[in-house]
Design a protein that fits this description.
Layout lengths: L2 H9 L5 E6 L14 H10 L4 E3 L5 E3 L2 E8 L2 E6 L13 H11 L13 E8 L2 E6 L6 H5 L7 H6 L15 H4 L7 E7 L3 E6 L15 E6 L3 H10 L4 E2 L7 H6 L3 E16 L20 H10 L2 H8 L4 E3 L23 H10 L6 E8 L6 H13 L3 E8 L1 H9 L5 E7 L5 H8 L18 H12 L3 H18 L2 E14 L2 E2 L14 E2 L1
Parallel strand pairs: 1-10, 1-11, 14-15
Antiparallel strand pairs: 2-3, 4-5, 5-7, 6-7, 8-9, 9-10, 11-17, 12-16, 12-17, 13-17, 18-19
Helix pairs in contact: 9-11, 15-16
């Protein structure tokens, strides 16, 4: 499986080639199509936003050198001059206007980031004004995640509109890129390998003088194969070393493991709003619509056992669906309902399901750390209280489109927070879907009062009042039990000791920070 990338590196014997792998592939190279962690990793190498990230996840100047609010509804961005796209064309204010509007298209999975933007205007070649529908104190955090494309390139290649991923649309932007980032896409073979090469004209080389000439990415689904390739020297870096192999890698000569808590939470979603579940043996009504059933499922999950046995201790048990490092996270809120099989059975009986019921659980098997193993454990735990779960574990390339079509009743999801603010979680996962917000709310949950809180925290400039809105929203989400929190993910990045690269808590390796000895 790894022979082809090795052949590529042989052809560049004098170049510094970084060879790496993880369990799945980028979903697409279209930078506005899919807001998925590994896919964003690919985009971050070739594309850039107006703001960038430092290695410790602080927002720093990128394609914008400065930004400020000029009034309550207008942010001004001063653009970096002299920047070129990979095809040699100049980066302009027109490209910013085009890219933000492209990211607002219904096909875009990034539209929720910038749902508050009413207009974006070119003031002059060095200045862009972003106009919001109301005050938005976190607009810079949000727009940092909108990658800038070349307007002329998009028009030339008929990719003015983002790819519709859920419909498996094929466009030129799916397999080709033209950004301003530190690396340029050389070869894209879906599910086989992706090769990127150094952008010698990148504006950031003085600040980040990396020595990576070529990056070869190979998706390797089998954990044992990834580890074996790392130990044998075929790979320099594995993003997701299996928890059961961490100690083995640590003991292997020439290798190192870097660990940190990821800004990502893993949880289970429930279709609480449908009149009848698509995938259940209960007909004519929805058992998940009853809060007692949801509480029973929560009480039936022994997260201590999952954390120790499935995750080998590499999990931070969660009671909310966001993690430390996110504004609005509070340890007092992050408390689980206790594991209590007796209480779970009593709640099911009270709800009229003394004998349980049947339901299907949709789970990815190549996205999160031990995702399928976690789901298998949950299936066994729910069986103890009479809930018979059919597990459907499949690749994220099938799992995510299924969710986006709302073709699910019960599902696993992991959620990182690139803006580092709780509003991001609420606007994607909790808010009533309206074409902009609620894009990943597959629970069919709708609460107008909660929607009002979420809208309020986007426009409230008084920090104390805003923090209260966030805290009240978290209390409501936890009380309603529309999601079953599991854990905050822990990262183990395994790499050659010849590779000097910081581990980053959003699980997005940024290779312009790397050096190969």
């Amino acid at each position: 499986m790894l022979a082809a990338p090795m052949a590529t590196s042989d052809a560049f014997a004098q170049a510094k080639t970084l060879r790496w792998a993880s369990q799945g592939d980028y979903l697409t190279m279209d930078p506005h199509s899919q807001n998925e962690g590994l896919t964003r990793t690919g985009s971050f190498q070739t594309y850039e936003g107006l703001l960038g990230y430092s290695a410790d996840l602080k927002f720093v100047p990128a394609l914008a050198t400065s930004w400020k609010a000029v009034n309550d509804t207008t942010w001004e961005f001063k653009l970096r001059q002299g920047v070129k796209f990979h095809d040699g064309s100049p980066f302009t204010a027109d490209d910013v206007v085009f890219s933000v509007k492209r990211a607002q298209h219904p096909n875009s999975d990034f539209k929720t980031y910038i749902a508050s933007i009413a207009d974006v205007k070119k003031v002059d070649e060095a200045t862009v004004h972003v106009v919001t529908s109301g005050p938005n104190p976190i607009l810079p955090n949000q727009i940092a995640n909108i990658f800038i494309m070349s307007k002329a390139w998009a028009e030339k290649n008929s990719v003015v509109v983002p790819q519709s991923y859920k419909d498996k649309e094929e466009t030129f932007a799916v397999r080709n890129t033209n950004g301003t980032g530190p690396f340029m896409l050389k070869l894209r073979e879906q599910d086989v390998r992706t090769v990127m090469v150094k952008n010698p004209d990148w504006w950031g080389l003085k600040q980040n003088p990396h020595n990576i000439d070529e990056i070869v990415y190979t998706p390797v689904s089998t954990p044992a194969t990834r580890v074996a390739a790392l130990i044998s020297g075929q790979l320099d870096f594995v993003l997701d070393v299996p928890v059961q192999d961490v100690e083995r890698v640590k003991r292997s000569p020439g290798l190192q493991v870097k660990k940190t808590n990821e800004i990502r939470s893993i949880f289970l979603g429930l279709d609480v709003g449908s009149a009848e579940l698509k995938y259940s043996d209960v007909k004519g009504k929805n058992p998940l619509a009853d809060k007692r059933v949801r509480q029973a499922m929560y009480h039936a999950i022994d997260m201590n056992a999952i954390a120790q046995k499935v995750m080998r201790g590499d999990a931070v048990i969660a009671g909310m669906i966001t993690s430390p490092g996110v504004h609005g996270y509070e340890k007092a809120i992050d408390k689980r309902l206790p594991y209590d099989v007796g209480k779970a059975k009593a709640l099911l009986k009270d709800a009229g399901y003394a004998n349980g019921f049947g339901i299907r659980l949709d789970c990815p098997n190549d996205r999160y750390v031990n995702d399928e193993g976690i789901c298998q454990a949950v299936v066994g735990m729910l069986a103890q209280v009479g809930i018979k779960v059919e597990l459907v574990a499949q690749s994220k390339t099938l799992h995510f489109p299924k969710l986006q079509k709302k073709d699910t009743s019960f599902y696993m999801l992991g959620w990182g927070v690139p803006t580092f603010d709780s509003h991001y979680v609420f606007s994607y996962l909790v808010q009533t879907p309206d074409g902009k917000n609620g894009a990943w709310n597959f629970t069919n949950y709708s609460n107008p009062k909660l929607d009002g809180m979420i809208n309020g925290m986007l426009t409230e400039l008084d920090q104390a009042k805003r923090d209260k809105l966030i805290a009240d929203a978290w209390k409501t989400v936890n009380d309603e039990v529309i999601y079953l929190p599991l854990h905050h993910q822990v990262l183990n990045w395994a790499m050659s000791d010849k590779l000097d690269m910081p581990i980053i808590a959003d699980n997005v390796p940024r290779f312009h920070f790397a050096k190969l000895k």
